[in-house]
């Protein structure tokens, strides 16, 4: 029995068998090979791989479908195939040629540190090419072939990893590196999958197939637990399940603090599936829909497809409001084909800055949103807005979209509400200007606002000491936003991971906030804290 310490990325307790996600190094025999025979085998393996991917896509939900289709498409890439055939003609085996070329393409993309979208594609290339290599080598196909639920161990987690196995097959995740602030970690939390990061590379050496207790709330895991420890863990899992049942009863209670102040609890979501979970946990709507994730991993949906996506989010929200954030491509976001060489690092052209550089793609999204807003209470907000010029430029495009929909005679909601997601300190300091320019609502995004206020990269574990979502500096900025909202009479919501931490939730409540948007799995904890808290300190209460 050995305890491994890491850092919590998604809370929970689970016991199971480890399955190591291998990005393995291949060894190949040196031949001699008959190029004609190798070429023939290559064609056969490519077609088997594509039909495997296509049949997976047919069975999968829409997000997973896009991944499989993308990988299948990549196996038709003429440039890559030409290089593979060239190597085979030079006397290399088909498997070695696929490995060599696939690895080179993947490395090239993986090294693009300023382009996370292409880095993401790098994993897809390796996924697809190792499928072909496995077919050529008569081996079972990679870890997607899981036949029972496991605790996944990997060097680090990409957002696609969690979408790459049938749901319910991943009990938990342990990674050697990575950060709890990454979007992959956010997805794990949204899917209620316990996860820890930063256990170190040694863990991966000999973990495959062994039993582990993953206590991600504590940020640790126990490999090969002895009988007593295992029994204890099983008891605690039962106890947690009992507590969960109790917490579920909280769902039904109206949102009122102990001293009678009403509050609104919303959820941060990615799409219809987790909106559904959030609604079951008592959310009264979606305070942040991260629309960039609809595109994962390879393609921007067209207007009609986006319209269906937003409409299905409204259906999942059962008549409650859904606040959609326009694409936040850039920084740690997947960018799909929206990425056209624009520098989109954290301090570069991400979010609305990227959208404004790509007006056609932005118009497609706005038109789809305006149309969906005719079907239910959908509002729209822009991420990474810095100043009122960004706002004006974005609203100028919105106006153009309204005109075009009118001309096309397509029904849409003329009165769709538009707001700003405040994650840049400059925008918080001038919040009243957005309101003066017609902004309908404000949303404070604590994840990025903390990062930019404290100049601490949210992905960087070593900078964690500077990442303080409830610091005096944050309080000042939040207070300024609330003052602007009050003066302009517009609603303000606060969202981000920090808001799901009960101590912070109560602090934000006592600062005057009444609308909170948290990850689905934090809803009940936050609600409990709010129900038990006093919104107004005693000396503020009316006589
Ligand atoms: C935020 O920045 O506070 C936020 C909730 O958005 P994201 O985590 O998607 O950057
Ligand atoms: Mg953000």
Structure, described:
It is a single chain. With 543 residues, the protein is of the alpha/beta class. Helix 10 links the parallel strand 10 and strand 11. The strands form two sheets. Strands 1-8-7-3-4-5-6-2 form an eight-stranded mixed β-sheet. Strands 9-10-11-12-13-14-15-16 form an eight-stranded parallel barrel, surrounded by six helices. 45% of the residues lie in helices and 14% in strands. The chain has helices at 35-59, 62-74, 78-89, 94-110, 116-136, 183-190, 202-205, 227-250, 272-280, 303-316, 352-357, 359-372, 388-408, 425-429, 431-436, 446-454, 472-488, 502-510, 523-532; strands at residues 2-5, 7-10, 13-20, 150-154, 170-175, 195-197, 211-215, 220-223, 264-269, 286-290, 322-325, 378-382, 418-422, 441-445, 492-495, 515-518. Magnesium ion (MG) is lined by residues 383, 423, 445, 447-448.
């Amino acid at each position: 029995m050995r305890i491994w310490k890491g850092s919590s990325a998604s809370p929970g307790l689970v016991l199971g068998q480890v399955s190591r996600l291998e990005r393995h190094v291949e060894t190949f025999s040196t031949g001699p090979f008959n190029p004609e025979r190798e070429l023939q085998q290559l064609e056969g393996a490519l077609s088997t791989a594509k039909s495997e991917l296509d049949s997976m896509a047919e069975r999968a939900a829409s997000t997973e479908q896009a991944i499989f289709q993308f990988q299948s498409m990549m196996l038709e890439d003429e440039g890559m195939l030409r290089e593979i055939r060239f190597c085979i003609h030079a006397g290399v085996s088909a498997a070695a040629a696929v490995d060599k070329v696939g690895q080179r393409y993947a490395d090239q993309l993986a090294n693009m540190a300023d382009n996370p979208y292409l880095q993401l594609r790098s994993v897809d290339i390796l996924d697809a090419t190792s499928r072909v290599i496995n077919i050529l080598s008569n081996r079972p196909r990679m870890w997607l072939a899981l036949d029972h639920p496991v605790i996944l161990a990997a060097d680090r987690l990409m957002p696609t990893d969690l979408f790459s196995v049938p749901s319910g097959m991943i009990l938990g995740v342990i990674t050697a590196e990575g950060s709890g602030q990454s979007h992959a970690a956010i997805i794990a939390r949204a899917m209620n999958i316990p996860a820890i990061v930063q256990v170190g590379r040694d863990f991966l050496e000999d973990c495959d197939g062994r039993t582990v207790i993953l206590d991600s709330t504590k940020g640790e895991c126990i490999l090969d637990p002895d009988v007593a420890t295992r029994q204890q863990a099983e008891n605690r899992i039962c106890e947690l399940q009992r507590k969960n049942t109790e917490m579920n009863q909280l769902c039904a209670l109206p949102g009122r603090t102990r001293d009678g102040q009403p509050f609104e609890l919303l959820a941060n979501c990615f799409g219809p599936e987790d909106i559904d979970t959030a609604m079951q946990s008592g959310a009264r709507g979606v305070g942040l829909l991260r629309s960039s994730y609809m595109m994962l991993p390879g393609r921007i949906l067209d207007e009609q497809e986006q319209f269906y996506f937003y409409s299905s989010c409204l259906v999942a929200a059962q008549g409650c409001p859904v606040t959609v954030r326009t694409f936040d491509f850039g920084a740690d976001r997947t960018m799909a084909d929206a990425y056209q060489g624009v520098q989109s690092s954290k301090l570069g052209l991400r979010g609305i800055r990227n959208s404004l550089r790509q007006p056609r793609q932005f118009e497609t999204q706005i038109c789809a949103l305006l149309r969906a807003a005719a079907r239910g209470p959908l509002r729209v907000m822009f991420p990474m807005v810095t100043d009122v010029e960004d706002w004006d430029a974005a609203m100028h495009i919105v106006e153009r979209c309204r005109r075009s929909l009118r001309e096309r005679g397509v029904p849409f909601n003329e009165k769709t509400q538009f707001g700003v997601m405040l994650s840049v300190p400059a925008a918080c300091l001038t919040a009243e200007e957005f309101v003066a320019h017609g902004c309908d609502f404000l949303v404070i995004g604590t994840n990025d606002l903390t990062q930019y206020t404290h100049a601490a990269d949210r992905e960087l574990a070593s900078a964690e000491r500077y990442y303080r979502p409830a610091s005096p500096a944050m309080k000042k900025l939040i207070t300024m936003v609330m003052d602007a909202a009050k003066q302009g009479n517009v609603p303000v919501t606060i969202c981000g991971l920090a808001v799901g931490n009960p101590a912070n939730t109560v602090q934000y409540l006592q600062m005057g906030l009444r609308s909170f948007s948290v990850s689905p799995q934090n809803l009940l904890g936050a609600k409990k804290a709010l129900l038990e808290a006093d919104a107004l300190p005693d000396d503020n209460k009316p006589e």
